[in-house]
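OstA-like protein
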Amino acid sequence: MPNFFRNTVIFIILFITTYTSAQEGKELNIQSDIEQIDEVKYPGAIVMYKSTKQVYIQHEGIEMWCDLAFNYKDENFVRAIGNVRMNQGDTITMRSNYAEYNGDTQFAWASGGVNLQTPTATLDTDTLYFDRIKQQAYYRNKGTLRDTSSVITSKIGRYFLDQDKYSFVQNVVVTNPEYVINSDQLDFFSEKGIAYLYGPSTITSDASVVYCERGYYDTRNDNGYFVKNSRIDYDNRTVYGDSLYFDRPTNFASATNNIKVIDTANKSIIKGHYAEVYKAKDSVFITKRAVAITVQDNDSIYVHGDRLVVTGIPEKRIVRGYNNVRLFKSDLSGKSDSIHINQETGLTQMLGKPILWNGLSQMTGDTIHLRSNIITEKLDSLHVFKNAFLAQQDTIPLYDDRRNKAYNQVKGDDLYGSFKDNKLHQLDIIKNAESINYMRSEDGVLQGIDKSKSASISAIIENNEITEITKLRQVDGDVFPLSLFEKEARQFPGLNWRGEERLLSKEDIFKGEAPFTLTKIEGIPLPEIEEDFFDNSIPDNKLDIPDASQLSPSDFKNREEDAPAIGVPVNEKATVKKDTLTDTKTKSSLKEKAPAKTNDSTQTEN
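Predicted structure tokens:
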């Protein structure tokens, strides 16, 4: 025979021998005190009993012990009954009432009080499949995992030994002495105690409830990071944000981008793009376009500052705003360096160069107080302390110089105002009151200019305009024609008209500020969906199921209803865009596609 053909034949023989050996697998090594054969009752089986020692089974790095075993040598298969224990090195120990092991496929199945122990956790279930080739265990009829800090239950569970990772699906519940997690789908890395939450999930404790649709939680250190429709509910406060960080031991939370803090006790909302919440101190710090909104009969008050701080229990809530504070209400707006709002007393203090606008009227002074009725929650009064100055732009230019506007002015030591139906109704300037008033006929013709001094002056406001002025105890004054009223005398010293700064809408609280760019958020990647535990492509008649097995072909089929609902298949990961957190369905109606690692794209808010 030529060498070429002889070598080819030898190669084919070696290949067939190797393939057959790989298919059949190494023979099971089984030892017992008592052995017997009963071909009538147990055809093809060697029955092995425990006497002084349990039956011992060994196969390629796995050891098994049981009270009774049926060894089917021709099929390289064993059935183990009673106090079954299976060890794989020092990585896992499995106990059960019953187990089957196929030496050719290295596939084990256990049922009845199954307990799987790893170096970091313990799993209890009724039925467990264990594929030693894949190094994966799987259950689909409810299981309970216990580690050093938590107990996790779910309907479906899959354990990846090489990653020390559990993937839980359907009715996932994590129970800890301090909180309970409920989730549709959860990946748990037991060595570090880290859980990844997917789908609608809640973390509930006595003090708070966290909700998210994608999140990370460290069960050992009790802190987490949440994205996608995330919020934290406290007793009377709810925090929303594109991303949330939560630390339970310190009762601290922070939020980034599109933040909204709703205070249900005081009917107020705070918005911004970065916030810190200190539950123990009952305080909130918020910055980056921070806005506090107080709801008042469909006419909310908006307060904006570089940073806002809210402190105190609901009954004694304090709001502080710092740097470039702006206030807007439909008929009232203002600015100041800082603001202090006491929701218990209804007092708002505008501090540092305060200014208020009401219609065409402008009020300034050293300090301005606004007071609300704590029962009706409507504005009740205002008080301008020291150097009170009221100015109103005349709507008709002076005919001698159309480039200039005329200003009705009232000044004095203090100014008091009262509100009617939540609108400014009357102003009273007391002590050393002085006024300049451009008197016009009904058709707008200038009749003269009234300049006077008196003990106090009262003004009635209707439709945001001064309609009536009353002087009390006038000590000096006269009415001058415009021609005899010098330009230098037309304005009191200290008049600083700032009408161009007036806020005409709630959007104007940001007027003059640069467009804001949102912080780039590191997203939480969706889980990688591994290939199915069972190979559904194998026909039933090709499945390697020994005749003596209690399993049937249907037991080796993946059920669609048991599949993870969220994730990206490993073989499709590279085709997924990496700049989105949106889940898109793939592979089946239940599975979703998303990037392995995601960054939110930078966004700009006008």
